Amino acid sequence: MVVGVLGIQGGFSKHKEMIDSMGYDTKIIRTPDELKKTDALIIPGGESTTFLNLFDKLDLEDAIKEYSINSPIMGTCAGMIVLATKVDSINYSPLGLINIEVNRNAYGRQKESFVDKVNIELNNRLIKFEAVFIRAPKIVNYGSDCDVLAKYKDDNIMVQNNSVLVCSFHPELTGNNVIHKYFLEKFM
Amino acid sequence: MAENKHFDLVKVGFAEQLKGGVIMDVTNAEQAKIAENAGAVSVMALERIPADIREDGGIARMSNPKMIKEIQKMVSIPVMAKCRIGHFAEAQVLQSLGVDFIDESEVLTPADEANHIWKHDFKVPFVCGCTDLGEALRRIAEGAALIRTKGEAGSGNIVEAVRHMRMVQSAIKKITTLGHDELVSYAKSNGSPLELVLYIKENGKLPVPNFAAGGIATPADASLMMQLGAETVFVGSGIFKSEDPEERAKAIVMATTHFDNPDIVSKASEGLGDAMKGLDIAKIPAEELLQTRGW
Fold first, then answer.
1. Per residue in B35-74, pLDDT tens?
2. Is the Cβ–Cβ distance between B197 and B183 less than 8 Å?
3. What are the start-end ranges of the H helices in B42-145?
């Protein structure tokens, strides 16, 4: 099984390190052709405006939409933003692959970025996870086809539907691979 | 994942998110918008771009807070700003403004000829320039969350950035080949903190991301630096000193994403107007070189 990590920009190298260490074959994806050769895709954090700008120029928008019909996608931070159906103050249309509405930079600028322990429900078990929020977005609304897997205070921070898993924080940074493991086992 | 106590989750974690991108120097809100629309991952707000600082002379200082605020209002991508080497009060002001990254930069006139800022004291992450590995490790020891080559800012000439990147990369390779008994002597002669030399011996790379700056003017320049090991590029004078900044900005973004695909770099380089003229480093008087500022 080949796991693709979208590498047009952003925090792709830490995702790749983590999935490599779990024993999967990992490929950095920058073109529609490379995407076709993978079985699951991770869209990392980074700059959502840069992602959407480049999706358009690299013909990745339609390629990812088509890909998602049969293959699972995980999006973290900016990766979550581009997968949403609705995003505040942005000039581009997001991919609309998970029915959530997202506000960008909702916790403030970098000096408001933080780390905190959160509870995540994976396979009906509550797991403590050290979540890193970096200029993080907020999920302000979600559709009835979505399940919430984690909250931080009043905010929903991790949501899934049948084929897409998103979170507003960075599970690739702390060395704990439970979220990646859940994605690759549950969604395949 | 190897234990890396210099991997501050929030600071270095943020630097990780900037990888594979282009950070562009801008001097006003309008340029910042052009940069954002072209796909920049961040903008560096400064009053004069390095080429003009070089031409105008005088003391180059932190930018006017009003200008930084206008840029913050205009774009949603992270906004960086520069403070003078050692000028921790300027850095405090930038932090209070909510700047996302502070560049303690040799492009501005140094405020302290002996000491850099103790960057651990700040919540906002810092990027610092280096000309070789020892300098990079000294800055990381002080708390820099991101390292970039100094190159020669405002020159439009890539030769110094290449020299500095090669210096860093070859020193990293060398350390991995040394025995542990040789590392203390290596650390002493290169002015490198031993603990960080040991980290490199074990991991074969810096504990923080390594970007390139100083002289990038074309899509191929960006591709070159990425292939030499840079993980993102800063473009200063290269964009807004060129004939058609908007097109050049887009082209450099494309060439950075696909740095290892010459067909795409070639296509991105087509039909661009003139690049900035550039300077021969040998013709810059030694006292006007920016890269020798800091230690």
1. 999 999 999 999 888 889 888 888 999 999 999 999 999 9
2. yes
3. 50-56, 65-74, 88-97, 133-142
Domain ranges of chain A: 2-187
- Catalytic residue positions of A, numbered: 77, 170, 172
Q: Do B20 and A10 touch (CB under 8 A)?
A: yes
Nearest to B77 among A47, A113, A134 (CB): A47
Cα separation, B73 vs B29, whole angstroms = 8
Radius of gyration of chain B from Cα atoms? 18
A176 to chain B: closest CA residue: B1
Instruction: Enumerate the residues of chain A whose CB falls inside 8 A of the CB of residue B4.
Output: none
CB-based contact B13 A47, cutoff 8 Å: no
Cβ-Cβ contacts under 8 Å, A77 against chain B: 17
How far is the C-alpha of B78 from the C-alpha of B90, rounded, in Å? Answer: 19
Contact across the interface for B10 and A134, Cβ inside 8 Å? yes
Strand ranges inside B12-145, DSSP E: 22-26, 42-45, 79-84, 101-105, 126-130
Cα–Cα distance between B168 and A86 in angstroms, integer? Answer: 44
CA B112 to chain centre: 20
CATH class in words for A2-187: alpha beta
CB B69 within 8 A of CB B97: yes
On chain B, the residues whose CB falls within 8 A of the CB of A8 are: 20, 257
pTM over 0.80: yes
Interface predicted TM-score (ipTM): 0.97
